Amino acid sequence: MIIVMKADTRPDSPEVARVTALAQSFPGVTTQVHHIQGATRSVTEVYLLGPTGVIPSTPFEEFEFVEKVVRVTEKFRAIGRHGGHLEAVGFEYNGVRISQDTLHVFPGLCAVDTPENLDDTFRALARHGVVTARAGVYKPRTSPYDFQGLGAACLPWVFERAGKHGIKIIAMEVTRESHLEEIQNALTASGFPTGVMLQIGTRNAQNFELLKAVGAQTDLPVLFKRGMGITLEESLNACEYVASGGNRRIVFCLRGMKTNLGDPHRNFVDFGHVPVVKRLTRLPVCVDPSHSVGRRTAGPDGILDVFHVTAQGVVAGANLVLVDVHPRPEEALCDGPQALFLHELPHFLDDVRIARRAYEERLARAARA
Ligand code: PEP
Ligand code: MN
Questions:
Q1: Which ligand is nearest the CA of 336, by number?
Q2: How far apart (Å, rounded) are the C-alpha atoms in residues 40 and 18?
Q3: CATH fold group of domain 103-368
């Protein structure tokens, strides 16, 4: 059960205290208070946990400072929209606003290899006005003999260079709990020249202990990638682990499904689920065209498959695009075959803008319908 307070009710206000006191007077019921940045305003919500089925709504609805009482279904308690009764949640991190209405492109290295390549990449981003990037330093590889990422040792120069080029957020995968501390320590030691969005990779989508760990901290937002071989519902339930830990600054990322039915692409592109995830959850939705397509093939129209599927995600309302680029893809230590060349970046960004304009036109048309 969620008690949505009227606009401008602070989480530490006496009104919220009255709601929590009433809630806690029911046996076995505990409360969590969340202050949420919604699409149109910020709102305080009180979550009632425990045996809430027997609790009547009326005493809460009678408070003049309560906007509404929403009975949640079992599914996706924290991230769900519960039949459209709850609005989308966005957040602002390091000066960048992310929500179901915004669009940001996160280009960068799948795996950080050399300072020069990182510098070249960030410089290209800065030249094109991009302040959000990806940079992997902990790489979960299919083979133990493949490059595993440079790890914590490179964090100081990764953060320093990000700061130098004005990068505000780096999406960075973590594969174990200790990586959180390594990132926090390196950010602190370098004076926070940039921000980090913790990425949960598809291989860890059901690593519940890791999900609890990223959910238990609220300093850094989380980019949760769907599991490659599980249903959307299972992925959303896994994502719920992050939110139920207390962290509500989450982005849900579609990155394709593992099946030969998607051949010749690396994964079967699932960007048709962008509006589905936006409908089922309150979260901004990311698409990862690089790991979906996995190669540099182009259509007879001369447009790369990576561009085409990105456009499909954006035209359907995606809020983030995570894309691999590399100054010298042939030398990349991970996923070079799917990386865009830096000279392709302006074309890619233009293509994203074209698709976004199409989405905005579609929105306006739908509003008139
Ligand atoms: C990545 O983004 O570098 C990555 C490993 O992606 P995924 O977890 O989707 O395979
Ligand atoms: Mn990769």
A1: 2
A2: 26
A3: TIM Barrel (3.20.20)
Question: pLDDT band for position 256 (50/70/90)?
Answer: very high
Q: What is the CA radius of gyration of the chain?
A: 21
Domain ranges of the chain: 2-91, 103-368
Please state the pTM of the whole predicted model: 0.94
Looking at the DSSP bridge assignments, the partners of residue 254 are 287
Tokens standing for residue 48:
């009632």
**Predicted local distance difference test score (pLDDT) of residue 83:** 83
Which residue's CA is the nearest one to ligand 1's atom 9? 202
Residue-wise pLDDT tens digits, 1-16: 999 999 889 999 999 9
Is the alpha carbon torsion for 29, 35, 36, 41 positive or negative? positive
Q: Does any ligand 1 atom lie closer than 6 A to the CB of residue 202?
A: yes
Per-residue pLDDT for 85 more than 90?
A: no
Mutate to test the pocket of ligand 1, among 211, 288, 334 (most ligand atoms within 8 A of CB): 288
Using the Cα atoms of residue 170, residue 224, residue 140 and residue 342 in order, give the sign of their dihedral.
negative
Per CATH, the number for 2-91 is: 3.30.70.1140
Cβ 291 under 6 angstroms from ligand 1: yes
